[in-house]
Every structure is written in structure tokens, then in C-alpha cells.
Design goal:
Length: about 70
């Protein structure tokens, strides 16, 4: 039973991070990355994915201090 609770907690952190990524993507809008290589458009999907990764990393940090 404890394993299911840990999985649910990790999923909650991932979902929260993804929701944060959605919020950032909606606030910033269509963004781009410009460098010597030219310009590349960055849509919402990579921002949501990065938010999910940050959420899982936050869960890992929380577990270190538990």
C-alpha cells in the first residue's frame, strides 16, 4: 500500500509541474530561441515537459529531506 501512495505522490508532483508549465506557456505565448544558428520556435509542449521534469525533481528533493 505504501508503494501506491508514493507513486500517487510522485504523479501529483509531476502533474503540478506540468500544470505550472501550461501556465507559463499560456502567459508567455508563442516564444522563440534566437542564436547564431538562426531562430527556432518553441511551442507549449516543450515548456509543459520541462515543467513536468521540474515537478519530478521537486519530488526527488522532497524525498531527500524526508
Amino acid at each position: 500500500m505504501a508503494k501506491k501512495k508514493k507513486i500517487a505522490e510522485a504523479a501529483g508532483f509531476a502533474a503540478g509541474g506540468g500544470a505550472f508549465g501550461v501556465g507559463v506557456a499560456s502567459m508567455v505565448g508563442n516564444m522563440g530561441l534566437v542564436g547564431t544558428f538562426g531562430g527556432v520556435a518553441v511551442g507549449a509542449a516543450p515548456v509543459v515537459a520541462a515543467g513536468t521534469v521540474v515537478g519530478i525533481a521537486a519530488y526527488g528533493i522532497k524525498k531527500v529531506f524526508d
